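Hi all, a correction to my earlier message: I attached the wrong file for dUTPase. Here's the right sequence:
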Amino acid sequence: MLNWEELYQMQHELDSFIEEENNLTEQNLLRDKLLALSVEAGELANETRCFKFWSRKGPSEKSIILEEYVDGIHFLLSIGLETNYRFAGVEPDQNDTSLTELFLQFNRSISEFEKVQSEDHYIHMWNVYLSIGNNLNFSANDTIKAYKLKNEVNVERQKNEY
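and the right structure:
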């Protein structure tokens, strides 16, 4: 089980640094974060190649896919901070839904949240995203470790004016 509060705290520190460094503390960044989440999900889908029926090339290495996956976690956490919603964490059920269908569901969940910014819609985004992670066979430990590593990279990037 993931320690969500630890991850929210780490994300809060990163977001605060970014917002202060870029004079964004008074701006509502929710729509930008929702678009960023959608773009990151697209990048993740691209690395899995799950929808590329026309290509014989396989997915990227697991480490690359995992790094793309935690980029989405960064934005899900950040959206929760922006809206004051928290995901407490429930492991999603294992299901036979295809990865392509899960990505389509996730895109719909982002759109639904953008229209109705409720905690239920926020939690639904998380549940679908975690189902993607389950489909990719990412354990909670894989995810936490990768999130922390990417968070360190993101902090360093910000310090070096990324």
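Sorry for the mix-up. The domain at 4-159 is CATH 1.10.4010.10 (all-alpha NTP pyrophosphatase fold).
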